[in-house]
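Consider this pair:
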Amino acid sequence: MVIIALLSNFYYFTGMHSHLSALGQRLRRARRRHFPRDDLAAFALRIGVSRATLQKMEKGDLSVSMGRYHAAARVLGLAHTFDALLHEPASLFDDDVR
């Protein structure tokens, strides 16, 4: 039973890490495109984090809060993309229509 739980956690974190790693890569590309003259320290200052935290974000570190990513997205003009997180498409069978 313990082995199954450990394997389950391993696959969960592996999948989550790949998503966050991709998010970090997109953040790095957007930072370089929108602020090509900023180094890590300058952009970190813009979004209110340390240089080390920005490095973690661009690596997809699990310890960085989503609020930090949202701050970066806001500075990059991409805050609207957070609306797509956990967005479930409407179904014809839903009772409450929004």
Remarks:
- Helices lie at 2-34, 40-47, 51-59, 66-75.
- The chain has four helices and no strands.
- The two ends are 43 Å apart (CA to CA).
- The mean pLDDT is 84.
